[in-house]
Amino acid sequence: MATALSIGIPALVIGVPLLIIAIIFIVVPAFRGVGWVFRQVFRFIGAMVTDIVRLAGVVITAVVLSFLALASVVMGRWSAAQHYGRAVQSEFAAGGAAIYRLAIGHWARLFCAETLVEGIERRVPQAVAAAP
Question: If you write DSSP's letter for every residue of the chain in order, what string do you get?
């Protein structure tokens, strides 16, 4: 008849390495996966909040610059009016980029589809900047 000790030692010798292997190949990757999901979600939330605040700043800045441009026109300072007009145009471009990121860009990153929007985010602005 087998004693508890003769059954326990082989079970311990087999069980401990199996437990270590399970931890290494199952538990650690599972925690890494959970950590990756949390990172993606919190990065998404942070980016969305940042762009919402940026969009509010764009609106405020564009209103102020528009009044400066209008005042420059009234005073006959044409070069200053052009300067403020270009600044308003730049703010509209920044606002458009923020709206794009809010609607498409951040969502694509959340679902790991960066290559889907790469052309819109990188090549289109380069083409627009290089346009005659």
Answer: ---HHHHHHHHHHHHHHHHHHHIIIIIHHHHHHHHHHHHHHHHHHHHHHHHHHHHHHHHHHHHHHHHHHHHHHHHT-HHHHHHHHHHHHHHHHHHHHHHHIIIIIHHHHHTT-HHHHHIIIIIHHHHHHT--
CB atoms within 10 A of CB 51: 21
Determine the Cα–Cα distance for residues 65 and 89; give it in Å rounded to an integer: 10
For helices 78-100 and 28-75, the axis angle rounded to 10 degrees is 160
pLDDT tens-digit map of 33-77 = 999 999 999 999 999 999 999 999 999 999 999 999 999 999 999
Q: pTM for this one? A: 0.74
Contact indicator for 44, 81 with CB cutoff of 8 Å: no
* Amino acid (one-letter) located at 122: R
Quote the CA–CA distance of 39 and 85 in Å, as a whole number: 40
